[in-house]
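Batch manifest line 172
LIGAND: zinc ion
JOB: complex structure
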Amino acid sequence: MQLNLTEYLESEGKQKTMTVSYEKETLDLWPTPTALSEPFQMELTIQNLKKGEILIKGSGTLHCKAQCDRCLKDCDIEIPIDTEEIITDQMAKNAGDPENPGFLEGYEVDTDEMIEEAAAENFPTKILCKEDCKGICKVCGKDLNEGDCGCDQFVPDPRMAAIGEIFAKSQK
Ligand SMILES: [Zn+2]
Ligand SMILES: [Zn+2]
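JOB STATUS: finished
ARTIFACT:
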C-alpha cells in the first residue's frame, strides 16, 4: 500500500492509527522469498511531532513457512515486526537519498517494503521446528524425533583412519 505523508507532515498534532495488510502472499526477502503461512496485518501509527516531522511506527507478528535446519521438515516460524522511523519534510523532498529508509519514496511510504525491511532485520539466523529438535541420523537419514534408529553414531577421527590405512599397507 502507498501511503501519502503530506497531510501528516503539515498538520501539527495529527495522529492516526490504522491496520495495514501485507499485500503479497510471499514475503519478498533477499535471497530467499518466504511464503506466508497466514495473512499478515500490522498496526501502523503516524504521528505528527512538529511541523515537518512525523513518527511512523508499526508492529505485528508475521507467520511464515520455513524449513527446520536440523530435521529439514517444513515448519512455521514467527517473525516479530517492529519498526519505528522519524521522517522529516527534508527527507521526503530528497527522494532517492541513500540515507533515507528504503520504504520512503518522496512523500509516500510503501508499507509492503516497510514490512519486508523489518522482517529481514528480525529473520532468525537459525530455524528450528522446536527448541529441542533432534535432527536426522547422519547414517540412515531417519528423523530422530520419531525415535532412535539404532545406527552406530560413532564417527571415526579421519586422522586415526589414515594411520590405520598406513598400518594396514605396511602389513602386506
Ligand atoms: Zn526439526
Ligand atoms: Zn540411523
